[in-house]
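Researcher: Here's a chain I'd like modeled. Treat it as a single chain, no partners, no ligands.
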Amino acid sequence: MSRIKQDHSRFRDIVRGKVRDNLKKYISKGELMGKQGGKAVKIPIPQIDLPRFRFSTQDGGGVGQGEGQPGDSLGSNKGQPGEEPGEGEAGQNDGEKALEVEVNIEELAEILGEALELPKIEPKGGTSIVAQKDKYTSIRSVGPDSLKHFKRTYKQALKRTISMGQFNPSAPIILPIKDDMRYRSWSTSSVPQSNAVVIYMMDVSGSMGEAQKEIVRIESFWINTWLKSQYKGIETRYIIHDASAKEVDEHTFFHTRESGGTMISSAYNLAWDIIKSDYPPSDWNIYPFHFSDGDNWSSDDTRDCISLLREHIIPASNQFSYGQVESHYGSGQFLRDLNKHFALDDQDCTLVCSEIKNKEGIVDSIKEFLGGGR
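Model: Modeled as a single isolated chain. Structure tokens:
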């Protein structure tokens, strides 16, 4: 390995260590910069000093030489433009140093798993769902007429005719024979299909403010990062609800603000419809996540939610996760209702609930959701 590769490897190890040491801060404060939708994210890494050279003119004399008074800038002499005085008061602390580095999603997921001690997920059902894709990659001398490659056949016949001295430029008639025939050939590759789906549901009623939605955005990003590292392919669906529910795209999910009441069963009904129509539980690993401040319209609607969870959604899912985001306007009653109707302390229970008081609670919430390895 060359010296530059060794240095780069050591630098990447330092960066990885810094990311791991500061990961909880990045999660709680949402310090992710750059492109999050692609295969990498940019993260600010503090306290890495990079050496650099500083050059100055040679005709200005050395330190302590030439004209000047104590306190004058080293870069200024009489008759020469010097540096302008800085603005603001002097301080005694170091300036903030941050280096923006790019970390790929796979590595970020691995660091997340190490930092939170997350177990590997054991997928159920169709974990080996793959699609067989045929791609024409080469040419061969045998094959069906439907795959005959006319250009390559003509070229081969022309080369044979010229090499045998039979080519007549004035009458360029080329007659391919059997040995000239060329056919397209293909290879079959296994392309993994999406065998896991994450269904995000969020209460967007008037009691859910921007701070609560920011918590949901940060937590869902890290949950997706981990789940993508555990599956070859994954799909994501988004549902928002107040008194009614609708499926939306990712941008709408995180930027919608409604002002109506809350009927949680509307989201659960829509999620169950999506599962029934698009994701057979025998073939798919299903992860519904619901985020709310705990308010619901009525006890009757809560009973409908409990029935939907117990009879349909939870049996079809690897795990159903409910995250209750604390809000000044939310009662938090729905979490108490879930505790009343489900044995949440039972290790076999696939309903996991988490109470998220603020951004600092995101780390513990992620571990509660993903710590079961389901």
